[in-house]
Specification:
- The protein is α/β, with parallel strands linked by helices and 120 residues long.
- The chain is 45% helix and 21% strand.
- The protein contains five helices and five strands; from the N terminus they run E-H-E-H-E-H-E-H-E-H.
- The protein has a five-stranded parallel β-sheet with strand order 2-1-3-4-5, sandwiched between helices.
- 32% of the residues are buried.
Length: 120
């Protein structure tokens, strides 16, 4: 499996990597991006099965990334990771193509469950 982690915090990207290992995805190929703009560049170069993206980032937010992917007609399994527990935000993210949303902090089990939900 090829996974793209999108977060402006390198520490958070490392925590997501660790949680992926804990959720049984340690053999996945991991790509990283610091914001939505970098994520789009990675997606042009790499085949990705799953996107794990933060919502609040500079340059291009997670929501703006979802909107760009939707405009391009590209479909990905997407889990949004957010500090905002607001159900309106979750609803909007789902409308734009996110298959699941999890809050920070999260456990490997929560991440694993979200991945299972979006991967089918």
């Amino acid at each position: 499996m090829n996974i793209l982690i999108v977060d402006d915090s390198s520490t958070m990207r490392k925590l997501v990597r660790r949680a992926l290992r804990g959720a049984g995805h340690g053999k996945a190929t991991i790509h990283e991006a610091g914001d939505g703009v970098e994520a789009l560049a990675v997606l042009e170069e790499q085949e990705v099965d799953l996107i794990l993206s933060d919502v609040n980032m500079p340059n291009m937010t997670g929501l703006e990334l979802l909107e760009q992917l939707q405009e391009q007609g590209k479909k990905y399994a997407i889990v949004m990771i957010t500090t905002e527990a607001d159900t309106d935000i979750s609803s909007e993210l789902r409308e734009k193509g996110a298959g699941a949303c999890i809050g920070k902090p999260f456990s490997p089990d929560q991440l694993g469950d979200a991945i299972s939900a979006v991967m089918g």
